[in-house]
Amino acid sequence: MEAQLREIANNTERTARNTRTKGSSHYTCILVSEKNARIRTRFSSSLKVKANKRYEMALVGLETYYSFPNIDATNNSFRYSSNNGTAWFNVSIPEGCYEISDINEQVQRVMKGAGHYNWATDDHNIKIEANNNTLRTVLRIAEGYVVDFTTPNSIRTVLGFNDQRYSSGYNESENIGDIMSITNLRVTSDIIGASYTNGTTGNVIYSFFPSVGPGYKIVKEPVNLVFLPITLSTISSMETTLTDQNGKLINFRGEKLSIRFVIREA
Fold first, then answer.
1. What is the secondary structure of 108-140 as a DSSP string?
2. Residues 225, 155 share a domain
């Protein structure tokens, strides 16, 4: 029994040794926070690194809210006619996070308020639905109504329709809907060396996609830290960004973004 306990103790010590952070006695924690996807930090006293040492940094935590919209001023216009194109009406969908059912509800609410509703059958004249089998969008349009996706800032890009007009009947989008325009979130820092993303260089230190839905808090604490080399000998400032897969800054709509880094000897 005593020998077994000694073996367990030795195994525990070996595990602790293998998982211990390198240079644990020489590390610095950095917290940056802002209501913006671009955070510029200036240190009151510069962080100096030893000339004969190499240093590296990893992201250890990120907190914010899933507040970034898939509908904004660039894609929020829904234009329709109730009399075969003689007169046109425009629905401007407020900036926010929408599923197709939410878009449908917003359009129908405005149309009903404008009197464009079938009171005889108590039914809507335009219905926007998701086809979960094909991942496309369906427009069910009543007789005499037309939907126009040729206007600037049209919502057609989200729904998957072409740049054209659609008349009464069953209309299924030609393309898969782009309801999730953001497929990847990337944290960058200007004090680290280049990393590779799809074959191109950048300074991405961490990438992920939220595991929660719109409105919920995003908390990321990587289990396996990825350290990248720091390229500066003196750090007086740093710039951190959170972008989408195309390098576009995330619109947090006033919510706070907090990111924690750790710097250690390599």
1. HHHHHHTT-EETTTTEESEEEEEETTTTEEEEE
2. no
Domain-ending residue, one of 142, 172, 202? 172
> pTM of the predicted model, to two decimals?
0.77
Residue 118 confidence (pLDDT) above 60: yes
User: Tens of pLDDT along 17-53?
Assistant: 333 444 444 678 999 999 999 999 998 887 777 777 8
Q: Say how many domains are in the chain.
A: 2
32 is in which domain, residue-wise? Answer: 24-68+182-265
> Is 209 within 8 Å of 183 (Cβ atoms)?
yes
| Pair 155, 75: CB distance under 8 Å | yes
pLDDT digits (tens, 9 = 90+) for 178-202: 998 888 999 999 999 766 665 555 7
**Two tokens, residue 180:** 């999730």
Distance of CA 137 to the CA centre of its chain: 22
Residue 207 is part of a domain; what is its CATH number?
A: 2.60.120.1100
Residue with tokens 């750790």: 262
Q: Tell me: do 84 and 149 sit in the same domain.
A: yes
40's tokens: 């510029």
Of residues 212 and 107, more confidence is placed in 107
**Pair (137, 118) in one structural domain:** yes
Sign of CA dihedral 188, 194, 196, 202: positive
Give exposure, 208-227, as e/b (b: 16+ Cβ within 10 Å).
eebeeebeeebebeeeeeeb
Same domain for 30 and 85? no
Residue 14, helix vs strand vs coil? helix
Question: By C-alpha distance, which of 72, 33, 106, 98 is closest to 253?
Answer: 72
Same domain for 168 and 196, yes or no, is: no
